[in-house]
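Recap quiz, item 2
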Amino acid sequence: MWRLRRLFAKLCALVAPERAERELAREVESHLALMEDEFQKRGMQVDEARAAARRAYGGVEQVKELHREERTFVWLEQTMQDLRYAFRSLWKDPGFTLLAVITLTLGIGINATLFSAYNAVALKPLPVSGPNEVVRLERWFQSGSRGDIQYAFSRAEYESFRTHNRAFSSMVAASWPRPVIEDTPVANRGGTITGQLVSTNYFHDLGIGTRIGRIFTFDLDTSPEIVISSGFWKRRFQSDPNVVGQLIKIKGTAFTVIGVTPEEFTGTSTTPQPPDFWAPLSLEAKVIPGAKELPVQVLARIKPSVLLQRAQAEANLLIQQVAKPDQRDKTTAISLQHTALFGNTEDIRFKALVFALMLIVGMVLMVACANVANMLLARCAGRQREIGVRLALGASRARVVRQFLTESFLLAVLGGTAGLLASVWCTRLLWSSIVQNFLGSFGGGAAFQANLDPDARVLAYAMALSLLTAVVFGLSPALQFSRPDLTTTLKEEGSAWGLRLSRSRMRAFLVAAQAMVSIVLLISTGLLLRGLMRSQAAEPGFDTRNVFLLIEDSGDMAQNAALQGRLAARLQTMPGIRNAALGSFPMMGTWTPPLLVEGSLGRTLASYASDAYLNTLGIAMLRGRNFTAREVSQGAPIAIISEATARRFWPRGDPLGKQLNLDLNFQGKFSKFEVVGIVRDVRFASLSRMDTGHVYLPAAPGDFQGVLFRSHGDAQTAIASARAAVREVDENQLPGLTIASIEDGPLRVQKSLAQTYMVYAAILTLLALTLAAVGIYGVMAYLVNQRAPEIGIRMALGATPATVLTTVVVEGLRPVFVGVALGIAGAAGLSWVLHTTLVFPGSTDFFYGIPFYDPATFLGVSCFLIFVAGVASLVPARRALRVDPMVSLRHE
Amino acid sequence: MATEENGSIKVLQGTLDLIVLRTLATMGPQHAYGISARLKQISDDSLDLNQGTLYPALVRLEQQGWIQGTWGKTENNREAKFYAITRAGLKALDRETQRWRKMAGLVEKLLVAEA
């Protein structure tokens, strides 16, 4: 209690110190008067008594200072003084302040933008109640398969978890959002809407209410009821407040709308597409005829008393009990993941991407810091007299350093705040450009939605970044210029040669550091930009315009071998279709099993292909022969390999007729295949580069990814024929089906994604160029300016302008050269590390084949920086040459 | 606790508050000079309080609400700030006294035992 009271009193004293000051002065005065009386009483004269009282009392000012220290928070009071002072001094120098703040805004803004996006997709919990208790179940397969499949659980698994667990207070299940066709579509709207099947406790247990109407009840009656999303309510019902009770007809069943979810509920699926409506799992057959037991994603709420580790251990145990022994790919573990908008955010590839981006924008910030540090140095040099005076008047070094740092902090906070504001806007821009890309491509019906509002985490990140930058750019000038070297600083600024020598080493170091960071940044962004610019012209090496893919959302067809076979056979006979095949879709996922040939082990891309596959795609056969229909139907142990595979595994011999061994299920068991053919290399895994190895195999029925066909003539006719064929074979497949050419489908996604990256790389490059040029120019020009008196003296002593210029420029450039050399080494190392990830056959090459040492980028960037530095030292040096030597001599 | 140096005792941190509270409780309201004079007298001139320590102690105690200062007149008609102990101050004095006794007893016991 009294502690609080004291704190309050101290704060009061801080805000209004005048009254306490007056009171103290009065008290000390009276104290002295009382002592004086005492001394007089003892027989002293008036003057004598006064002097004695003063002596006995001691230093009045010291006592007052001690009183102040006790009375209030001195450090806080001083900080406020420093802040006021920093404000005034920044205000007086608006040019410097503006430039520094803009530089920091760019640096911090771009970092905060990236972090906001990352935060929105990977850190922010889902919009459910008590989000910290809710976890997503993720399974890990023996084969190491990754992706959405890790979140798929069978209904039996879900039920078993639900009944046997003791760690969770509740569990909910939800299917992936599925497209369905509404029977009576509203005017000018397509009939396709997306629905998600959920367990009846879904809304209740996640704590999601409705803005209108109610959520599902628990009784298991199967009256067809649905809850719709806010977006769908606005689109389909024009925000009709009386929506409850209206009907949506799907496949002959009328579903009654019972509620509308709130705006901020964006769904819980690992792909952030809020569905149009939710229906109970029990209505599966009515919503999606033909579907049976769709896999579900499972969310669980951990009991408050249970630790995550314990729940995890229990889940691991339970999954082993439910697992069927004949499962093709065994689940080895379950992890309970904190919910975020995206699944798989702990995936090493996602993390690597985020890390690489963070590194690049981090470098932008470092260059920005270096710029501001150098600007501050120049500014401090001009304030040396002021600092000298303060030190001479008794300010401690720590106090002066604090004053400097306060100024830096103020700058950083201004820059950070502006950067944060800018990032709010930039994040939206970034997100909408990404979403646009996905929407423009195939299959995108519903928009990705994310909550991009900055939260406490983003705020903390931006502020922490600001404070860190303040220390980074503020500390070195502060320490350098607060050295209590009174005699020299009180003299004319910068005239002491000895002092300048020790400082010049520091500055050379700074110039070198700035050049180095700039070079690393410029080369990284430059390489990226040059690579991405190649993406638009990249050719995959097979027919993309006339080959169409039947892409289905459900994955039912892929599991239904008979269906696939019938469909392929039917397509073959349709008008406008040249041939149809079964096999893997290019640029839509990779499968990279270990490959063993005569003792050498590696990884390769692998695809299943029917006999018509290579023909349909137009991948040229170089030697050997194709599969026969018979071999395909039997799943014969033969393989066709790509040129690159042949080169890599049979550098000298002839692969035809030889054996290769593949570990298809990643279980350490190799199966033998005989090589029967060699085909041309193509860009199958991604547009970014030729496959480093590719093996085509005839599959057992049911292993084919899907159906593809090649048109001849008009594309629309071919698509219409294909749709007709699907309707004939199984019309339930139609709603979830997209038919797109490789060009309009996966290739467009890759190209437009690369284009988006390219735009950002261009922005980054431009930013990096500007920051680097401004920074290096500023610091070089300043350093040469500092030497103007020296140049004058040299001229007076008889040096020719040419020799002086050469010395000044060459000497000035020396640290730049050192920095550039180090930067080149660093950039080469960094890009080498990035290139080593390409050993993995499935990874994307963001440099599109640009080598890691690309001479054009390295040389161009280095020359640019050296040129800027050269001009920056030449211009002020020439100006200094024109000054009358006598003027500079007198100045000295 | 106090240390002796050149014959005069310097007050250690923490104990001064207790001494001031005790003085005020015994003597009633006193001004700063009065307190220091009294302490000097009681200790037979061996405890010479530096004003630099007394003033911070007074402001500390006042901010804690244990003493309260009011302006008044001395018998010589001089104005002075008189500090009086408050009710919270009396309670605190009790507490601090007990703590001091415990501490002193403990130290004494230790000194005897280890001698």
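Residues 131-346 of chain A form one domain.
Chain A has five domains: 2-72, 73-124+347-493, 131-346, 514-540+742-892, 547-741.
End of item.
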